[in-house]
């Protein structure tokens, strides 16, 4: 026998009370306690939640001419009631000469020292285990670093200061400086897909470990705020000063130069900061040479732009353009839209004298045409429809795609130009660069770095090995201008056979050596260790069959700072590159160690370590390791296959990807304007719901018959 239940109007207050009470209780239970926020789930304990540390930072960058000095301060905040070790993976420029670290705790300051990597690690571990405050900075890749900070007290903070030297970049009449603030999750191919080339360097040649990088899910609020201040003294009046990544606030102080800050104050670290400027200078800039005298030697930094008038009158060789576009999971979102737009505009620049093809790749490569076709209208229409249909998902198997692009020798009457469009989110850079050296042949490789946080080191090195050029697109509004600049390089002959002559060549060590071919708009940037500051630096080369020559007076060089560090950093890069050439690893290690210890530089084989002399953590207290999650790059969204996945997952067929971690709200960190956290809002709503429920109950009692 069934029984029906009916409600009359007089039951409404009771129902209202019940619903409000239930919802209010749920809100109160779900809302975390104050002081909590972002939670981590340690491996092996899926039911355990621990608050994650937060890193708040400032970057002070001083630019004089074509060199810059950066001081980064990272404050580690511990939200727990116990002692923790904070581990933080973060990017720096791949050409940064990192030489300084300082640990600040309350009123104590501990200076860091450059030591051999394994010795520094042992010193740090001993200090951490004995309860002493300590910090350890290690280079995982030329552009990726790990900071470990031991014995952060309960609810306490520790500040770590890092310093590095960097050269300003110049291309197409624009100066630029990039400060990376985000890391795209890196893909590591399965062993069977390494294209038969073994990695000679690895992520960290000194220890062989891969940095573990937890990344917040895209639906979690972002954290790790960063404030940026730039002091720019370009040496002459500015033409244009702008940033495609952030809105700026610019002032001109009385002492000269320009003070630059972010208009919004501190920002979350989810995109690289890019500053660009031009100078009010003649159409043909004069050679720029700086000198630093240090430890009985002189160090030179030169930036020389070849004259624009050097253009070959020879008919350009017909070219075969092969576009290789990344459609892997890391390209999902805004990066995929930028890549499609860049490729579509690149197709517009082809003529009926050109041949072309398109290779898209994720876990497997996909070729549009079996063989390259003439760029006529029917073929271009097929290509456009193909590009518009591209979607992102899967792994980043760049090696397989490059193997296809260079799989045939091609017709010698066609100059093959491969244009690689990707974020470079891979972890096997040494293997890929070694592969390129083997398969390039007479072809050229041009790289287009896509997204707000691309792997600039890999993209720049791939273009160098491929005797091409690199450009970076971080804003979809830049696509037309940037791709036009790239095709101007493709269409114009390179400056070849460039040589540099110094007054005393036998006693001079200059880099790069040899000087690579250059394309239109690219300067010659070189560093050198010279015996005396006198004579001329003479550069010669060819534009087609036309010879050119430039002379710079070394005695008229301007004084510079940090040039010795930049020269040593370039020497370290040259030595590490010899690993890909098969040079004995121990020989390379000893050469790098000698340079790093003499010039106090962070490298694959050296680390910066700072240890307090006093123990802070009581012996009876334990210390737990906490890894600080990074923010995903702005505009990045997980592809369908990665939704609701854990931090890291291995598939033997498809390799390994650092995936998005499911996280909760972020701890409250002031960015200038206080805001309520989702947890606080939910708790407040729960309290209000309880009050409303109680009111409904009282009304029900008063109106009851």
The gist of it:
By secondary structure, the protein is an alpha+beta fold. Among the domains are: 9-37 and 677-703; 48-276 and 610-661, Sandwich (Immunoglobulin-like). The longest helix is centred in the last third of the chain and has 26 residues, at 678-703.
Explain the layout of strands and helices.
Elements: H1 12-30, E1 39-40, E2 50-51, E3 54-64, E4 67-77, E5 83-91, E6 97-105, E7 108-111, E8 113-116, H2 117-129, E9 132-141, E10 144-152, E11 157-167, E12 169-171, E13 174-179, E14 187-188, E15 215-216, E16 225-233, E17 238-242, E18 248-251, E19 258-262, E20 267-268, E21 273-279, E22 288-294, E23 297-304, E24 319-326, H3 334-348, E25 355-361, E26 365-367, E27 373-374, H4 377-388, H5 398-405, E28 415-422, H6 429-439, E29 444-450, H7 456-465, E30 470-473, H8 479-491, E31 495-501, E32 509-511, E33 524-530, E34 536-543, E35 546-553, E36 558-559, H9 563-577, H10 585-599, E37 606-615, E38 623-627, E39 648-651, E40 655-658, E41 660-661, H11 678-703
Parallel strand pairs: 3-16, 5-38, 15-41, 22-36, 24-25, 24-28, 28-29, 29-30
Antiparallel strand pairs: 1-2, 3-4, 4-11, 5-10, 6-7, 6-11, 8-37, 9-10, 9-37, 12-13, 13-21, 14-40, 16-19, 16-20, 17-21, 18-19, 22-23, 23-33, 25-26, 25-27, 31-34, 32-33, 34-35, 39-40
